[in-house]
Protein 1
Amino acid sequence: MKFPKYFSFFILCICVLSSQNLFAVNDKRIHEDMLSNGMKVLVKEDHRVPIVVSQVWYKVGSSYEPGGSTGMSHVLEHMMFKGTTENPDDSFNQIIARNGAEDNAFTSRDYTAYYQKLEASRLEISFQLEADRMRNLVFSKNDFDKEVAVVQEERRWRTDDKPQARAYEQLFVSAFENSGYHHPIIGWMDDLENLTLEETKVWYQKYYSPNNATLVVVGDVDPKAVFKLAEKHFGPIKADIVGPPKPIVERHQFGSKKIKMHLPAKVPYLIFGYKVPSLLTLTDDSKWEAYALELLAHVLDGGDSTRLPYNLVKKQQLAASVSSSYSSYARLQTLFMVDVTPAQSKTIDEVYQSLKHELNRVRTETVTVDELERVKNQIIAANVFEQDSIFYQAMKLGVAETTGLGWQINDHYIENIRKITPDQVLAVARKYLIEEQMTEVQVIPSEKLNQTKNKTN
Amino acid sequence: MTKILLLLLCVLLNFPVAAANLLPGQEVTGKMGTLTVKRWITPQGMPVLFAPSNELPMVDIRLVFDAGAARDQYRYAGVAKLTNTLMFEGSKHLSADDLAITFENLGSQYGNGSYRDMAVLDFRTLSDAKVLNKTIETINYLLKEPLFDQKVLDREINKLKVAIELGKQNPSTVAGKSFFKALYDYSEKMDENKHPYANQPEGTMDSLDLIKRKHLLDFYQQYYVAQNAILAIVGDMTIEQAKDVANQFASQLPQGKHAPQLPVVRKNMFAQSIKLEHNSTQSTIIVGQAAIKRGAPDYYALYVGNHILGGSGFSSRLVKDIRVKHGLTYSVHSNFAQMREKGPFKIALTTKNKSAQNAVKLVRENLINFMEQGPTEEELKEAKLNISGSFPLRTASNQDINEHLAVIGFYDLPLDYLQKFKRGIEYVNIEDIQYAFKRNIDVDKLITVVVGKNTAE
């Protein structure tokens, strides 16, 4: 579907598997340049197919937003398709369509990105349009009102009518109190209602400048030609002063938080998270903790033979599904998450006992060498498989660069994963999977879904 | 009158699709994107499509059976899906635990899917000789004499029941099921008045209670057979290796015979409006009817027409009107499903409950208007530019190409099917689109499903 959207959970999931080239420590296919206005350009060659993906990444997302204006970055993303002075109204979409390009955009907590995927010789079209809309959006009042209404429908569809999506939203709201991760990416319905065109425009002017953006191009291209083309279209845009977001540090949590949501639902659900650091929040000599946490997430849920699916779903048959996830590429302190849907006729309490037992095991016993090796092998192979998608390759460069880690970190990913020992996995489980840093949300089916049938012919 | 029309349609649709008609030993060669494709039939009668590609050290394997939910008996709906799932749950030659551990040690991935027409087993592996050989060996073990253990079956039935309950939480799932029932279940009372497409792939609470191990064994014996399978492979392998692998796979399976032809889908006899009350903030709306089967001669015209009506995101009429102009939805789209027998044409969207009636009205107006007046010259020109310009994107990855190969094999299409499609699109004119829509869509007999709150008002 060709609609602007945000991929919050999607991003979280892929970051667990984030990694770069299998064998090479420095991926020679990646070329870096900096335009005179401070815009970074990354090009990765992949000549398998005559196509290219071009992505523009901005360092702004929902975690940058002030209270009362939640969802603003995402509404702005929608407005980016609404015309500039040079390409008014629908012409952006028309030009894209006429050139057979696939295009879309996504907003997350840490970034907003726009992309086109198209036949390689047409790359310039993408640059022209992206350079134009970096600074020249029109912001008509009518478009803005309509687009806010569209986003409100998006919120209803994405979150309000999906009990598990509401629990996920509530988990971040409850776990983080002053951090920017408190806000839902799509924003509160009330905030959307009261969002003004003026503040959205100010937001755009503040963050959409070349020195706050990264251009990532992957595909059948010549890096030198791409740099030249980038200079031609993005080069003339003047740099602006963009300060970093305020350094908000989440206040300390003094005990577990437990929320029960009574929702119109049929199936109970449990999701919980422990506060954990990301690569960015760790000091250099403790960065290994992030890799150990990634491996821990895989030890718990990295395939049918791993602990949670194997014990809870297959053997004890207490859960219909269970998963764990962690994203080391987050900009701020984040969550190590576990979620579970009980099997039919099983209660949350029953499955919770067993879940606690498994979490207790990783806190008290080291994982076996074989088990850890198996998990590493999967991560290493997945790292090869993901090179089948040029979009995904670009995505990884963009995320690493935009959160502030720098794309080179991808090159050392496998090496860093390989180094982790069973003792280190035990150490992070002991240190971070603790009750006091935990927040949990349960969905308790209560209100009726009311499926009475009125049929008329 | 209807009978005559039906007859006429059958003649029109019984269009030979240039089947492969290969004999064992024969081989044909074609192109797919940048890759060369070989097609042959194993001595056991299993068609194979193989595209060698050594750019990445990996191999994608897709094994497809004509064993989707359309092959279920209505009373035992769910057998097809359960058989598919239990293929990964152990055979006489390999336990489920060993299977998972072996794959995960190798970093190889497996997955499955069971739809109305197709049942799919997917594998992805590194092409390193040791890893590849071990993966192939493991696949051989799992294909031969699966156990269909009763305890595992009970567990998977329980999981399907949870999936059914989860579906009830979601107005879009409720609407989709109700729409399929209206199209393919001609009578609430008599089994023989249902088309097999009326079977819910995940079964029903009632059907799941009846399913025993014996049903899966019978289903496997009849449908998971060499003559009813298609193998598609893309990746870093030689043709000799691919032939060897294909022979190995085919010889693990019973030889059997191809599944019989499915019954013809009846045309919808009258307009129907179905309203289901649901405790949600949005209403899901689906409007449509059974339309064409794969290979229908009108397909090119319908494809271009649908592209303009609701198949191309921001370029389509439905999005421009219902999303952009009225701000009533985040996503609205239309499509013609291409299945063995007539699949649905449908227009679908979600909107806040208050706007539901208005949205239904707009959907109908757009469809009727499009059918009466056809697209404009400008729209047609733009649509063709988009379709031809985006062509290279269809075969951008090994995974994309393998999916196309599986479809070509499954529906017995010619190897140059994509090139033919591209040429076919070029010749479509406005009259073709109008005639094709009129021949295949009867606006007086549309099925309209609305699932939301206060739908009766």
Note: The mean pLDDT of chain A is 92.
Protein 2
Amino acid sequence: MNRSIRRVALLLMVGMVVLVVGATWHQFVAADSYRNHPDNRRRALLQAGKERGMISTVGGRVLAYSEQDPDSFRSYNRRYPAGEAFRSVLGTEDAPGGLEEVYADELRSRRDLTVSDLMAAMFGEDLRPRGLQITLDADLQQRAYEILARRRGAVAAIRPDTGEVLALVSSPRVPVTERAAGVLYPVGSVFKIVSAAAALDTETADVESLFEDRAVWQIPGATLVVTNPGNVPCGDAAQVSLLTSFVFSCNLAFAELALEMGSEIMDAYAAAFGFETAMEFPLETPVPSFGAERSSDPDLLASAGTGGLALSSPLHMASVAAVVANGGLRAPPYLVASWTDADGEVNERPETPEANRVTTPETAASVARMMERVITEGTGQEATVAGHRVAGKTGTGQDADGRNHAWFVGFAPVDSPTIALAVMIEPGGEFGESVTGATAAARVASELLSYWLQRS
Amino acid sequence: MRLVTEAAWVAGSAAVAGLGVALVDFGKTGQVSGAAGVVFLAFGCCLAGLVAAVRRWAPGTSSFLLWPTALLVALGLVEIYRIDPMGAPIQMWWVVAGVVAAIWVLAAFRLGVERLMSVSYWLAAGGLCLIILPFLPRLVDGNSGDAAGLWLTIGWGNVSFIAQPFGLGAVLLTVGLAGIHSRWALDPPPAGAGSRLVSLRNHLVVAAVWVTTLPLLWATGDLTAWAMLVVLSATIAYAAAGDTRVVWTGLGLVGIGSVAGLTSSRVSQTLDVWLDPFSAGEAGAGLKESLLALGSGHLSGSGLGMGDPELIPRATSDWILAALGEELGLAGTVAVIMLYGLVTAAGVGIAIASRDLFCKVTAASLSFLLCLMFLAGAGGLERLLPPTNLGLPLLAYGGVPLVAGWLAIALLVRISHEEKGHL
């Protein structure tokens, strides 16, 4: 009897040993595959409650910081004291696209309460999270957000000489996606800045060059019929200057110029202004296009010359205006000013990309003069700011559904520009379904520019 | 000397419980609450009461069985406090109830445990009824409500709770079977006519347990818990009669039952979860999260209060070993395995030292029961066996695993006292 009891006991002990082996398998040999398993929610939970670095503006406004959870030791809550105006730029750590998610790793605390942390801390290593300083001007951003509040649209503003992004606002905030840099819209006649700069820079035309003034033009050897807005001639005379065509946004001169310059020149200048080129930017930025890349099809070329095919984001269009404002030099837009240590001391400044020459200073000056005339006597009179010289260009871009997007792109003051901006108003909001550049976008730009110019 | 030993393990176990609760508090909040002191005192008083009762009614026993038991209960209580702070006071009351039940066993059988032998048929039948009967309605209407597997929803009106009568039934069945086989061993069949039939009776008992528990397999799909019962009945018969063939009968019946069980949708669902817990959806969530918890614990664990065992569904009851494994690591898991090993070894030692046949078989059977239940639960967790929600005796949340465990331990204590010649 004792023999059988001993035998069973022996078998049971063998079972216990097997359990130890099994536990060793799960908790040691295969442990990493469980820890890193996609279904294991522990990693996300650990990060969610962890301390993260502060995001602030260069001007010192705190945009995001971590605060210790009063109820849970070791757990932090993320606070956004600057409010809704910055929400689309910051995003959240979980939603893709915003700075919080893009720099999730860089902002992360390295304090995990592990033994190796203790060792590192003993050797004086700072495990606290780093801080991020961005170029946004907190007051301008807030103001732009308030101005856009009842409208559907987006605003981007940059400093023309450096490329610092001053404001990046999309409204309404829902859906949360950032739309001032992250979505392409049809830009319409705003693209004429590029066509005009190309024509002047290559001496294909000058400001006073004359073009035959017609309401409608059937392009020779092509199917396209180019028309002016309203199907009327641009001026009263038989011929119209490039300046007048620009100021009143007439299409025929620009279609003619595009055909005359040809595909190579159009490609080269569009690319120099940042079209068809991926932008290096922390937020997602789709590649803007002008609609006729590497194409000698006269239909496409003529249409692209007037801006009818161009798709771009407000941020990119602000950088187009900045080229003109900056004497033909393009300083690519950037958002990250510096990284700081946990005490707020700057310890790393990302290299800002070199400015590259797009047009000669003379060309830029000529385009700037034409853009100023748009405000003083052309389509952009709504953007006037009393007591200041403003330059700009309006546009109305139609999307595939025929819905109009109103644009204003410009800079101020003309003699020494401190801001270049782009305003895009979508159909809907207080301006209703039908919007044109002359009114909706220009009015927003005027409010924003007068705020900026009066402040500085 | 004896007082020192007793004081040491009582204070040591209470300190493990109190210190564990303090560590949980610190890991969660960075501060220690008064709960640690309450648990230390309550747990210490329970054990001190038990020691007093042991001194009164079973002074011949040694502490070798009691201290691993106390440590297991302490570890379970700490992890339950960690996962479910609201459930911990209830569990503390169940500890009190378990100790009271143990003291009652010591007092009730102060004249000897062989009184149990006279009611062994009733005990076995009662145990089987407790295991099977509550699940019969589920076979008829097919609806298991909120509770699944071995869990039962018991309710009057709008008051309802879930319970697992399986463990208590298993203890009763074990004592009953031990009694039946002891009687037969004391009373060998006469030679001659019918003796062949009589020699089959051990096999018939195993087959009877097999037949009566088959509905459980269909009603719950818990292959492991069901197989454990059949294997248990076979090992009890083998321990009493020394007939190896009974073991083969038991294993054969487990095989037949398993194959037949494949026709049950609940069994095939259990097997689906077993084969691939990561793509078995909601049904496999318990095993999946438990494995992730075990792996995340690694060698030394996250520390008490610093892991995420609340991600495991029913973590305090079905998967408490996974929660312990996450927070105490492989070290903690192996410690629990070794504590169960010690309890088993102590029980088997009591059985081997016993001279009385019924005491010997009962002690062996109860030790086998505790060990088999642990092997089944932990084997299911480690995917060595199909997953089960059999509550680990002494460790898991709930009154039944705790009280049933303490009943078994108290009987072993009493038997170990009698084995020394006291009666």
Note: The CA atoms of residues 194 and 270 of chain A lie 7 Å apart.
